[in-house]
Structure formats: C-alpha cells, structure tokens
Write a structure and sequence with these properties.
single chain, alpha+beta, Ferric Hydroxamate Uptake Protein, Chain A, domain 1, 5-stranded mixed beta sheet, 2 helices, 12 strands, 25% helix, signal, Transcobalamin-like C-terminal domain-containing protein, Transcobalamin-like_C
C-alpha cells in the first residue's frame, strides 16, 4: 500500500511543480500592454516660408494640448481611435517644444477628425494660401498630428506649405 501512496504523492508533486513553473508564463501573457506613452526624444523642426524658425531635440509624450483657438483636448494617439493606449504624437511634440522654448502655436480643433489643425507657428500663419504640413522622418503623416505615433529618434517637421 505504500507504493501507490508514494506514487500518487510523486505525481501530485510533479503536477504542482509543472503548474507553478508555467504560471509565470501564463501571467506574463495576460499582463496588460506595456506603457507606450513613455517620453521619447525627437528633433522638432519648424520651417517657415522664409527659412528655419525652430530646430531642437526635445523629450515629449502624448498629453492634453491647449490652444487659444481650439481649446483643450487630448493629443495622445487615442484620438479618432488611432491607438488603444496613449502614445507620443507630432502635435504634442510641437506643443512641448513651444512651451519649453518660448514660442507659440495655435490651431483649430475639429471634432469630426478628433484632431487639431496647426494654423500658426511662431506668428507665421498658413492663411488662405498655405498650411502647415506635418512630416515624420521626411514622410507626410497619413493621419492627424494627434493620431500619429512618433518614436525615439524621429525627426518631426512642421513645414509651411503653399497651395
């Protein structure tokens, strides 16, 4: 009778050991998504009609943005359902650059797009014949500046562009 009892104990111990060994993998697989809104360091460039207006490396992350014309709204990649979690964005980077370097920018808020348009940077307006285009690493963003995710090392450019 001792042999079946020892065998049962050994099987139970082995099963428990396997369960505990695999538990961290299961827990890890079920863990929430990683924090994606960690600060990134990017270069922000603002190119006006008459030349370079601003260029500097900054740390940024997605955050609420306030403009005189548009009011306060999220600008963290969750706009328009673009991302499930907050991420750094080009317009948030412009906002951080402006606040930390003593210049202003303004933009209207478009609820239908859940995003800002950048209308004026450092007193230079797009007006009726131009607009501020947004590029990341030399490529125009396919979505608004509060929806596009930027990453560490990116070159974020706002360029005055005539029609």
């Amino acid at each position: 009778m001792r042999t079946p009892l020892l065998r049962r104990a050994a099987v139970t111990t082995t099963a428990l050991g396997l369960a505990l060994t695999t538990a961290p993998a299961v827990a890890q697989a079920e863990a929430p998504a990683a924090f994606t809104n960690a600060p990134v360091r990017v270069t922000v460039t603002v190119q006006g009609p008459d030349g370079l207006l601003f260029q500097k490396k900054i740390f940024t992350w997605g955050h609420d943005v306030t403009t005189a014309t548009g009011g306060t709204h999220a600008c963290d990649g969750t706009n328009g359902g673009a991302h499930a979690t907050k991420v750094p964005t080009p317009t948030a980077a412009l906002d951080h650059a402006a606040k930390r370097n003593g210049f202003t920018w303004d933009g209207a808020w478009y609820g239908s797009f859940d995003d800002y348009s950048v209308d004026t940077v450092k007193g230079v307006s797009g007006g009726g014949s131009a607009y501020w285009s947004i590029e990341v690493n030399g490529v125009p963003t396919p979505v608004g500046g509060c929806q596009f995710e930027i990453e560490n090392g990116d070159l974020v450019s706002f360029t005055w562009t005539s029609f």
